[in-house]
Amino acid sequence: MSYAMLANTLRSAMEKQDTVAIEELVCEFQPADLAEFLRHEETEVCLKILAHLALAERAEVFGYLPLTLQAEVAEEMTLEGLAQLLSSMESDERADLFNLMEEERQVAVLKLMAHEEREDLRRMASYAEGTVGAIMTSNYASVPERASVAEALDIVRKTAPDAETIYQIYVLDNIQRLVGTLSLRELILNRPSMPISSIMTTELLTTYPDEPQEDASRMISRYDLLALPVIDAQQRLVGIVTYDDAMDVAEQEATEDILKGGTVGNLEGSLREASLFTLYRKRIVWLVLLVFANIFSAAGIALYEETISTYIVLVFFLPLLVGSAGNAGSQASTLMVRGLATGDVLITDWARMFAREFLVALGLGLTMALAVSLIGAVRGGPEIAMVVASSMVAVVMLGSLVGMSLPFLLNKLGWDPATASAPLVATIADAVGVLVYFAIATAILGL
Amino acid sequence: MSYAMLANTLRSAMEKQDTVAIEELVCEFQPADLAEFLRHEETEVCLKILAHLALAERAEVFGYLPLTLQAEVAEEMTLEGLAQLLSSMESDERADLFNLMEEERQVAVLKLMAHEEREDLRRMASYAEGTVGAIMTSNYASVPERASVAEALDIVRKTAPDAETIYQIYVLDNIQRLVGTLSLRELILNRPSMPISSIMTTELLTTYPDEPQEDASRMISRYDLLALPVIDAQQRLVGIVTYDDAMDVAEQEATEDILKGGTVGNLEGSLREASLFTLYRKRIVWLVLLVFANIFSAAGIALYEETISTYIVLVFFLPLLVGSAGNAGSQASTLMVRGLATGDVLITDWARMFAREFLVALGLGLTMALAVSLIGAVRGGPEIAMVVASSMVAVVMLGSLVGMSLPFLLNKLGWDPATASAPLVATIADAVGVLVYFAIATAILGL
Question: Domain A276-444 is classified in which CATH homologous superfamily?
Fold first, then answer.
């Protein structure tokens, strides 16, 4: 059954309070799908549905729920139920949930957990948001350096970590330092008596718990890894970051950059579920800043009030010209911001990029000047046509070069290049456009 | 050694033409890093460096090169060398390269390949760009339905596909139909005599070769899969899409959406390496379209020329007001476009989103009216302050609601919601802003 069909059938079973049907149906869902279903339901309903699942499935479905909903549901659980659930969750996911619980409840629930789980949870919960530590899991397969292939396979069988983390096996020396890695594939393809030290890879890609998540995510994507080991300053293995978490990080990063490109602050969660005040708060700062930035355009207009009152027709072309400068600038900044984010363009490429943009913008400006000079000739005669055509070339080139350079400049200042949003570039291009346009008009019209 | 150090050492070894050192160094690179190094070098150099690698490594490094460079290098190779290389490449990657070769060379190289490889390449090269078929690989592990765990492990050992594709094993019936799947983990954890039909999963997530790539990528991300099987209409297994290709697709999709959000056409490749004409072509269309769209703003201004010439001060506030409408609109469209792209917001959510936007925009408009009315009072007195304050509330709300609704409207028309770019929204908001502003001014100032 498709997700939509399953969801509808489950909904009607819930209305009829048909417990037997509910129990059967919830087992048919993919865990991610059941979580998708539950996120639109009340906390009460979530609790009831989750109770129908065996512990392992419950923990998996629970892990797919949005964090805020997890916290709400967890609050309604018994302490014993919560401790059980935490023990079965992924170590990075349970740490996130744990950090949202009240301190009193944290202490109480820790008491009910086994010693090792408790220590793991305490440690994992201590890493700051956005760091590798916060997304790594301590659920990995490790074997001692001296093991043979057969012994290593045996250890892996006994510890049997999660499906996603069993395929890369980490080789540790006697003080837990990471000395090599090998894949489950290599284990099953080699002779059982072979010592693993002779087949493991010793050229290791690693990261540290306090590195930024996006760097780890980028490494996993660049080297096509299943998992990236995380070590401490003494080279001891402390956890691994898996490819599925890397995919989630990459998606969040893209969202953050896209929102920044629209001058919206990072939502850190769902747009559908964000409070109205949060949305207001994430938008108002830039809007007000840009109002004040627009005063520069306004001041430019005030400066040329005389020119304008003599040739009111110039106002007609104002939105065309400043709009075009802003649009060309937005294009240029969008290209650079994304190029820098994906690593396609490097900060050191500025001069080369500037030269290329100069030529491209010249071509764009000339084409648009042609378009606008026709309108200019019709509306205001040959002199006005000349004013608007030469202004168009100038403002499109200036707008493009500003838009293209701004991400590099912001980076030099230690800011995120993605701050060079379309609205910010458009506002700067507006001010530049107004000044250039009226200056050219004043010169050509001999005012 | 870090990538930067390795690259520098290799560069100096190349200058000294120290072949022994070069040979040693190239083996120390991660394949993705060596490709990164080579993409900045001449075709000649690439050929020489690649010749130092064993075939398997050469094929891997080659697969990481940008497609255009691959084609250039391949053109310089001997037919025999190229046939060897193609035989060792991933089946999806070689199909992409094959499609870029001249027909004559395609025919010649196919003749030099083994029958099975040739058939595979022909089939893979026939899928359209952007479809699942174009990124799937035929390199997977499959076992017959009747096998035991021990027999299955043996088959997997013998076929020993790539590291990334060995971990999910596909169970086929006697006419190659996909009937189940199980992981290598399950194989090694179960008793050897167990029939695989009793441990395999029969609830299958699958896709078809002609589905869009991004749908497969989203499924892999949503369900945390290592690979997604691709079946034909008869349910026969034709290939698999692996998680690393899904990550690449997700990154390309994000780039495409971001560029679209800046009214830049999809570059399908590197910004650094794109030709100037390509860049011009990807930008000019929207720029010219927006010039003509801006004529609506200009026409609005022409309509109120009398009001403007009476109160020139109104022009001073024009950029502030229309800029703010555009900025608020860009924010709203950015939020919706991303929400729709990630599946956070559904098309059916329009009414709810509209109601929420109405309230948020009201808050934003009132705050900004306060800011702008102060400037209005200072520059133009209380009447002008009233005009600009009430205009601000109106244009911010209209801009926001237009920006928020446009992605939904575009979707209804069968367009990509991401077409609702900041510049497009700003241009529409400009026109609406001009009309509303001067209408309010004319009314309040009693003209």
Answer: SLC41 divalent cation transporters, integral membrane domain (1.10.357.20)
